[in-house]
Amino acid sequence: MSCLFVEQLTVIDCAYLDATRGLVGESWIVDIELEGDLDGQSMVLDFGEVKKRLKRAIDSSVDHSLLVPGRSAALTIAREAGRTMLRFTSAHGDIEHHSPDAAVSVLDTDVVTADTLTAYLRPRLQAVLPATVRRLGLSLRHEQIDGALYHYVHGLKKHDGLCQRIAHGHRSRIEVRIDGQRDATLEADIARQWRDIYLGTCEDIVSDDGERIHFAYTAAEGAYALTLPRGRVDLLETDSTVEQIASKLLNKLMTSQKHGHSITVRAYEGVMKGALAAGQC
C-alpha cells in the first residue's frame, strides 16, 4: 500500500465548554494521512478530492461549532424542533447557550481535548473516503507560537457563513510594536487580560445584572442566545470582527503610551490570518 499526506489540510476554529476554564476559543490545525491501494491514476486519492471531501466533512461538523462534552456532569442539554438548549456549570459560573442544532457538536466524552475531538471526527471523515483507502491518519495540533497568545470566543450576526454562530472562537497570537520594536510586556498584558474571554457586541446585550450578561440575536441560520458570567466578557461598541478587535487594542494602547510614539497592533484570528491597526500617539 501507498501513503499520502496533507499537512495543515484546514484549521478548525471553534469553541468548547470546560468545567475549569469555562467557554474556551480554540484553533486546531488538521494533518491527515491516507494509506491505500493506488487507483487508475496511480494515486491513493487525488489531492483535490482529499481537500474537497475531508475539508467539507470538517466544515459541516465541527468547524465554527460549540463543542460540548456530552458525558460531563456539569451539562444539562435538551434538543427540540431543530434547536439545542444547554446549561453548563463551570468554575466561573453558569453558561447558557441556545442555538440551531447545527451550531453545536456533542462529543461522547466528559472533557473536550484534541484526542476526544479526533475520535469524534474519525468516523465522519472515513465515511466520505473511498473503500480503497485502508487507513486514515488524523492528528490535531496547535500552531507553534513564540510569544503571547489568548483564546477568545465571539459571534458575528451579520456574517452569511459560519461566523454568525454566537459561540465560536480562536486561539490567537498577538503582536505589538512600539516604534517598530516588539514589546513582549504589552503583548503579555493583553494575553493575560483576554485569557479565555468572550468578546461581545454591546448592541447584542439583552440584559446585564452585573453578574451575568445575556446576549441574543437572529442571524441567517436562526436565533442565538448566550449567557455568561460578567467577569468572562469584554465588550466592543462595534461588531467583534478581527479588524475591530485590532482597532480596540490600538485605541487602548494609545491612551496608555507616551506621546510621540508609533504603535502597531497585529491581531490574529486563529492561524496565519488577522488584521493590523497602526497609529501615532
Automatic annotation (TrEMBL):
Tell me which cofactor or cofactors this protein depends on.
Answer: Zn(2+)
What UniProt keywords apply to this chain's record, in alphabetical order?
Lyase, Metal-binding, Zinc
Superkingdom of origin: Bacteria
In alphabetical order, the GO MF annotations are:
6-carboxytetrahydropterin synthase activity; metal ion binding
Under the heading SUPFAM superfamilies, the entry gives: Tetrahydrobiopterin biosynthesis enzymes-like
Could you identify this protein by its name?
Answer: 6-carboxy-5,6,7,8-tetrahydropterin synthase
Identify the metabolic or biological route this protein is part of. Purine metabolism; 7-cyano-7-deazaguanine biosynthesis
* Annotated EC: 4.1.2.50
Task: Name the InterPro entries for this protein.
Answer: 6-PTP_synth/QueD, 6-PTP_synth/QueD_sf
* Family assignment from sequence similarity: Belongs to the PTPS family. QueD subfamily.
Q: Which organism is it from?
A: Solimonas marina
Q: Which reaction does it catalyse?
A: 7,8-dihydroneopterin 3'-triphosphate + H2O = 6-carboxy-5,6,7,8-tetrahydropterin + triphosphate + acetaldehyde + 2 H(+)
